[in-house]
Amino acid sequence: MSDIDRRKAALLALLAPFASKVAQAEAPTPSTHPAMEGFDMGRGDGVHWIGHEQIGMLMYPGMTVMDLIGPHSMFAGMMGATIHLVSKTLDPVTSDAGVTITPTATFETCPRDLTVLFTPGGTDGTLAAAVDPATLAFMSDRGARATYVTSVCSGSLILGKAGLLKGYRATSHWSCRDALAGFGAIPTEARVVRDRNRITGAGVTAGLDFGLTMVAEMRDRTYAECCQLMGEYDPDPPFHAGSLKTAPPEVRKPMEELIAGFKQQAQALAATGPMP
User: Fold this and answer.
1) pLDDT tens string 69-101
2) Residue 150 and residue 210: Cα distance in Å, rounded?
């Protein structure tokens, strides 16, 4: 059993006690998981417990792993959904933190019609992905048909370069949010921004908020809140330096200096506009 299968099985067991809404006819295959035995999947409580979503999550060398894993941890709690970890090849992909993840699909084998198209962000790796012809072609193609086109952090630079944000409000990491204007987007400062079927998350940890927002969108609020409770997502940070608004000057100044080079590169990328 793969790690992803184990993850789904574990979350299925955790969420099974709540899963009482969907009629038997809706379930793709009657579950044989022991945790499902004895639960009435047809009992009407108004919650959309089982679905058939196809979720494509882009991976590329140098991505920020938290950008990917935060949303993935929420998507993986959606019973019946299929998550495709998509890269150019099936070779393991190493993040900017040195964490290596094995893709499950390539640009060629990923389903053509996705419920969610998602991309994480990063720094140098993101800038490289945003000028890679194969990556942009994949994002443009799947994004043209996906029900939701999404990103977290600087992943919105990839959406913008692929021509998927023109005329849409969108957010990103604070270091490159304003650069989105170069792609015809409307930079918007918020933790999660939705404009029609474009849903974008701000920097890194905003991926958890984004993930819960997406679960609520595709299932409903109760399901999302169950995922939140099982993940014990109840933020109470020991410090209040998580945004430019709250960080003290002695924190903000060195961080702005540290990321100044990436900010300039992101602006330069955006100045070239979306791909033709």
Assistant:
1) 999 999 999 999 999 999 999 999 999 999 999
2) 9
> What three-state secondary structure class fits 146?
coil
The pLDDT tens digits for 33-49 are: 344 444 444 445 778 89
What residues act catalytically?
A: 153
pLDDT in tens, 145-193: 999 999 999 999 999 999 999 999 999 999 999 999 999 999 999 999 9
Tell me whether strands 93-94 and 100-101 are parallel, antiparallel or unpaired.
antiparallel
Give the Cβ contact number of residue 99 at 10 Å: 14
What pTM does this model have? Answer: 0.88
Cα-Cα-Cα-Cα dihedral of 266, 271, 275, 276, to 10°? 180
Report how far residue 71's alpha carbon sits from residue 195's, in angstroms, rounded to the nearest whole number.
19
3-state secondary structure 233-248: CCCCCCCCCCCCCCCC
Listing from the earlier edge strand, what are the strands of the sheet with 116-119?
105-106, 82-87, 54-58, 116-119, 148-152, 198-201, 192-195
Question: Which residues, including other chains, have CB under 8 Å from residue 51's CB and lie 6 or more apart?
Answer: 78, 79, 80, 81, 218, 219
pLDDT for the residue 26: 36
3-state helix, strand, coil in the chain (%, to 5): 40, 15, 45
Which residue intervals of the chain are DSSP H helices? 3-15, 65-75, 124-129, 133-143, 155-161, 206-218, 221-230, 249-258, 260-271
The position carrying tokens 């040195």 is 98
